[in-house]
Amino acid sequence: MNSATRVIHVKDLPIGGPHPVSVQSMCATRTRDIEATLDQIRSLEKAGADIIRIAVDNDSDVEALKTLRAESSARLSVDLQENYLLAAKVAPWVDKIRYNPGHLHHLEKDRATAEKVEGLVRVAREHNLAIRIGVNCGSIAPELLERYGSDRVKAITESALTHCGIMDDLKFENYLVSIKDSDPYRVITVNEAFHARRPDVPLHLGVTEAGMPPDGILKTRIAFEKLLSHGIGNTLRVSLTVPFDQKFREVEAGKAILADVAAGRFTEVPAGFGKGLNVISCPSCSRVQNEAFVELAGKVREMAAFAKDLPVTIAVMGCRVNGPGETDDADLGLWCGPSKVTLKKKTRTLGAYGYDQILPLLKQELEKLSASR
């Protein structure tokens, strides 16, 4: 599984080139809940996580991060998402920063994208940090959506390539790229396309919103087995919808996939897998507004079993970051907030309902789709 990419470093961990593929996960706890987050970090470390990602949204999270750093020597990656301006504040306490090109437009709207990235690189240089350029299908920059329309593969591939070009212009090399989608076959396509044009850049593999085990693990295996066996991929995360105290299962699944690929053991995909009903759900992370969404995702899967052969995608999203985009793309979507769940049909909002009300309403809509198809 060795690749010909250059080698980057996250603290003392080399990624790329001849080095083993590393395994990552992300804390599901709220970052400001220091005790719970420390417990999560230790649980993930015990499972063998090489890098642990934490979300930081505001100054309270930054203050918590200082304490987490003092209490743990784990390699920490911070997820900036919509608030890249926090980079300088978090930099002393982490080993890597992740930004999403699709979210840079939210702040300082009159400032050029390249200038914003230059600010992130300046911070990374000063603190000897690695950078992940994290492109997601659910949050593509508006100008790329306008340019490439419905061709999501082209849009997210070009987004990654453009930002690599900015890094190169700045002569910054300690970066890698992730290009993620909830469709494992699309993950294969975009990563192969990117790797063909930039074989020097290390890749972080992931199937975003893969969903609940066992289907979420199988979707991830489909992508990872194909890519890893062709020398594509230098670090990875298995993104699963699991209860917060079971986040270690992501690490266990990642290590199992790596061991199987190394031994030449490949999964036989059941006939028709991915052709009928597809329930996607985001991994439990610290941006989830109500852990009840994990239980709801399981109930959706059980309820929708009657339509298992129907080519319909239901998205159950627990946070604001990828929730809007992923539910827009799904036939039916549940965007789960603190106390209400927004029911959507593609981009159309049908209403917001309590967690105890939503399931029969979703079933009604699914029955309508079943009857029409």
Which descriptors apply to this entry?
TIM Barrel; 8-stranded parallel barrel; 5-stranded mixed β-sheet; alpha/beta; 373 residues; 12 helices; Sulfite Reductase Hemoprotein, domain 1; 2 domains
Our measurement of the CA-to-CA distance between the termini, rounded to an integer number of angstroms, reads 43 Å
Structural class assignment: alpha/beta
Uncertain stretches: none
Which CATH architecture of the largest domain would you pick? Answer: Alpha-Beta Barrel
CATH topology of the largest domain: TIM Barrel
Tally of individual domains: 2
Note the main sheet.
Answer: 8 strands, parallel, barrel
Radius of gyration: 20 Å
Output the helix-strand order.
EEEHEHEHEHEHHEHEHEHEHEHEEEH
By DSSP, the count of extended strands is 15
- State the name of the first-level CATH class of the largest domain: Alpha Beta
* CATH superfamily descriptor of the largest domain: Dihydropteroate synthase-like
Q: Describe the strand arrangement of the main beta sheet, using strand numbers.
A: 3-4-5-6-7-8-9-10
Q: Please report which band the strand proportion falls in: under 5%, 5-15%, 15-25%, 25-35%, 35-45% or over 45%.
A: 15-25%
Mean pLDDT across the residues is 92
How many distinct helices?
A: 12
